[in-house]
Amino acid sequence: MNVEPPVRVEDKLYYNRYLVDIGHPHVKVRAHTTPSPQLLALLKVCPARCYELNDDGQVEITVDGCIECGTCRVIAEPTGDIEWSHPRGGYGVLFKFG
Amino acid sequence: MIEERFDAIVVGAGMAGNAAALTMAKRGMKVLQLERGEYPGSKNVQGAILYADMMEKLVPEFREEAPLERHLIEQRFWMMDDRSHVGMHYRSEDFNEERPNRYTIIRAQFDKWFSSKVREAGATVLCETTVTELVRDERERIVGVRTDRRDGEIHADVVVLAEGVNGLLGTRAGLRARPRPDNVALAVKEMHFLPRETIEARFNLKGDEGVVIEAAGTISRGMTGMGFIYANKECISLGIGCLVADFQRTGQTPYGLLDQFKRHPSVAPLIAGSEVKEYSAHLIPEGGYKSIPQLYGEGWVVVGDAAQLNNAIHREGSNLAMTSGRIAAEAIDLVKSRGEPMSATNLAIYKKMLDDSFVIKDLKKYKDLPPLMHTHSQNFFLTYPQLISKAMQNFVRVDGTPKAEKEKATLKSFAKARSWTGLFGDAYRFARAWR
Ligand SMILES: Cc1cc2nc3c(=O)[nH]c(=O)nc-3n(C[C@H](O)[C@H](O)[C@H](O)COP(=O)(O)OP(=O)(O)OC[C@H]3O[C@@H](n4cnc5c(N)ncnc54)[C@H](O)[C@@H]3O)c2cc1C
Ligand code: SF4
C-alpha cells in the first residue's frame, strides 16, 4: 500500500463561510458509555470531521464546521445515537458556489 | 403569526421548489415559498450540469438572463485505474448551436437568479426561515406549516414539499421513510479557480465552450461511486461520490478519496496551480425507481430529490426536480380550477401526469441497475477498470510480442479475474438491467 499524506480537513473548511448559531447545535450525540458501530462510523464518514473520540472513548460532535450533508443522520439517527435537525433559518454553512 | 391564507406553501427554493412556485405564481395562485438558507442556493450543491430543455419550459428566455457558465460541446467518460485511464470522448461542432442543450452552472448563483423569476411572477419568498413541522387538522389533513421564525402556523390549501434529499419534514410527519445508507450517495466537491485562458488551453476550448468528465474505476476503491470534473468559465468543479452504505462498510473517508482523485496523474495537471475557494458535500438519491415514496396525500405533494427522483446512471437530477415541480404545480392548478379540494384523491392526478413524463419513464427503464451496481460494486468499480486498463496497455505497447499472443494474454487475464461464467453473468445482468 502506498502511504498517503494526511488530509487536513480543517484547511478545507477554512475556505467556507459559516454563520455559527452559538449555543444551539443542530446535531446532538446521545450520551453513551461505549459508542455503537454506527457512531464509530461517523468518525470517518463525516466529510467535515465533526465527530471525534474524547479521552474516555466516547464520540463527541462539534457542529461548527458541519456542511449539512445529512450523512450522519442517515447512518446514526435510526439507532437513536444522534438527533439531527437543520440549523435555524439563516445559520450554518453559506455556500458561495455550491 | 401570518393571518393570511395561501393557495400553496412551497418548502424549499431549490430546483424543484422554484419550478413549482414559479408555475403556480404565473397561473395567478397565491404562493408562499420558504427557504432556510440566507438566500436561495446558499445550501445547495450540484456538479453542475443544467439541461436546457427542462429549463426552457419554465423560463423560455433563460439563455439571455441566467448566470450560465459554459455550453457543453464535449463529454468524456474515463475508466480509471491507479495510474491510467481509458477514455471515451464525444465532441461535436453540432453542440455549438444557437440554443445549446447543456450548460455548466454554479448552483448558488443560478438559484438566486431563478428565485428572482419566482418573485417577479408574484410569489412571496421568505429566506432564513426553516420549516420545522407540518400542521394537520383534526382529520389528519396537512393544512400548513410551522417555522422557526414566527409563532403559530401558516395555512394553505396545499403544501409542496421541495425540501431536497434529506426530506426531514416528510420523514418526521410519517409521509415517507428516512433515506437509507444504500439509497443515497455522499458526494464531496471542491471549486478550483484558474484563469479563463488556462482552463480553455487545458481542456481544448474556445470562448464559452465547455467540457465535462465523468470518471469511474479504482478511484472509488471498490465502492459504488463516480468522480466528476466540470469546466466552468473561471473555475473547475471537481468531486467524487460513493454510496453511504459503502463508506460505512469500508471506513474510507470522503476527503481521502477526493484528495486521491486530485492526485491521479490524469487529473493533477488539469487543476495544477489552482486556488480552491470552497469545499462542500451533499447527498444524492441513488435508489432509483424502487425507492420512490408515496408522492401525494391529503393536502400535500412531494417533488424533486425529496421524492428520490434522480437518475444516477445519467447523472440527471435537477431536470427531474424541475419537471416534477412544474408538473405538481400544474396538477394543483388543475384541481383548483375545478374548484375541488386538495384531497389525496384529487392530487392523485399529479402522479398520473408524472408517470406519463420522462421522469418516471426513465427511472423505470433503469429500475434494476442501482441494486446490480451496489451488489457487484467490486467487479464494476475495481476489477473491470483494472482489467480494461491492462488490456489497453497491452494493445498499444509495441514490444515485439506477436499480436496473437497479446490477445491471448488479455483474454486470459479477464477469465482469470472473473471466470468465464462470471464475465458472461455480469454482461448478461448488465444488459438486462439496461434494457
Ligand atoms: C455533487 C452533485 C452533483 C450533481 N450533479 C448534477 C448535475 O450535473 N446535473 C443534474 O441535473 N443534477 C445533478 N445533481 C442532482 C441535483 O443537484 C438535484 O437533483 C437537485 O438539486 C434537486 O433539487 P431539489 O429542489 O429537489 O432539492 P435541492 O436543490 O436540494 O433544494 C432543496 C431546498 O430546500 C431547502 N430546505 C430543505 N428543508 C427545508 C426546511 N425544513 N425549511 C426551509 N427550507 C428547506 C434547502 O435549503 C434547499 O434550498 C447533483 C447532485 C450533487 C450532490
Ligand atoms: S451533516 Fe454531514 S457534515 Fe454535518 S455532522 Fe453530519 S455528516 Fe458531518
UniProtKB/TrEMBL annotation, chain A:
**Similarity remark:** To ferredoxins from P.putida and C.tartarivorum, ferredoxin I from A.vinelandii, ferredoxin II from D.desulfuricans.
* Residue ranges crossing the lipid bilayer per the database entry: none
The name this protein carries in UniProt is Ferredoxin-like protein
Q: Which residues form the 4Fe-4S ferredoxin-type domain?
A: 57-87
Record-linked InterPro entries = 4Fe4S_Fe-S-bd, ETF-QO/FixX_C, Fd_FixX
Question: Which PROSITE patterns does the UniProt entry name for this protein?
Answer: 4FE4S_FER_2 (PS51379)
Purpose: Could be a 3Fe-4S cluster-containing protein.
Keywords for the protein's UniProt record, in alphabetical order: Electron transport, Iron, Iron-sulfur, Metal-binding, Nitrogen fixation, Transport
List the Gene3D superfamilies: 3.30.70.20
Q: What start and end residues bound the annotated signal peptide?
A: none
TrEMBL record, chain B:
Domain FixC-like C-terminal span(s) in chain numbering: 369-435
* Ranges in coiled-coil conformation: none
* Keyword Flavoprotein attributed: yes
Q: Which cofactor names does the annotation list?
A: FAD
Q: Which Pfam families does the protein's record reference?
A: ETF-QO_FixC_C, FAD_oxidored
Q: Which UniProt keywords apply?
A: FAD, Flavoprotein, Oxidoreductase
Q: Which domain of life is it from?
A: Bacteria
Presence of keyword RNA-binding: no
Xref: InterPro entries: FAD/NAD-bd_sf, FixC-like, FixC-like_C
Q: What does this protein do?
A: Part of an electron transfer system. Could be required for the formation of a functional nitrogenase Fe protein. Probably accepts electrons from FixA/FixB and reduces a quinone.
Q: Which PANTHER family match?
A: ELECTRON TRANSFER FLAVOPROTEIN-QUINONE OXIDOREDUCTASE YDIS-RELATED
Protein family membership: Belongs to the ETF-QO/FixC family.
**Designated name of the protein:** Protein FixC
Instruction: Report the source organism.
Output: Bradyrhizobium agreste
